[in-house]
Amino acid sequence: MASPEDLQYTKSHEWVRVEGDLATVGLADYAQNELGDITYLELPEVGDSIVAGEPLGVVESVKAASDIYAPLGGEVVERNETAIGSPELVNQSPYGDAWLIKVRLADQAELDALMDVAAYETFLETEAGH
Question: Alpha-carbon distance 128 to 74, whole Å?
Fold first, then answer.
């Protein structure tokens, strides 16, 4: 699956869609593919604060458990209860139905640390080479 061009990405394979001061966060297709069948999601509660680069939750699959890292800091304003109840959505629709949380951004400057699609795809080629 090609990485959507309207998103920004992290080296820990989260994606971000920014609209004004709100950011929607999800797991990239690469991450769900590496993890295999996802069986559990643990996400922060609405009202929680998250910090860029710090774990915001956990994703578990038949292969492994892995932290989900916050690409940006801010206050969680919504979480995807549908994905929590049906974590396999992350495998089926990583860029659509399986968004994870929506965050009110604390600092727009943190966006500068994210990769555009071209940089992310180059990063993936480097990762695959290891």
Answer: 32
- pTM flag (> 0.85): yes
Q: Which helix (H) or strand (E) holds 18?
A: strand 14-19
**What strands, in cross-sheet order, belong to the sheet with 8-9?**
8-9, 14-19, 22-27, 101-105, 74-79, 49-50
pLDDT in tens, 20-63: 999 999 999 999 999 999 999 999 999 999 999 999 999 999 99
Q: Which domains does the chain have, with CATH numbers?
A: 9-128 (2.40.50.100)
Residue closest to 100 by CA, chosen among 57, 64, 63, 66: 57
Distance in angstroms (rounded) separating the CA atoms of residues 90 and 84: 10
pLDDT of residue 127: 80
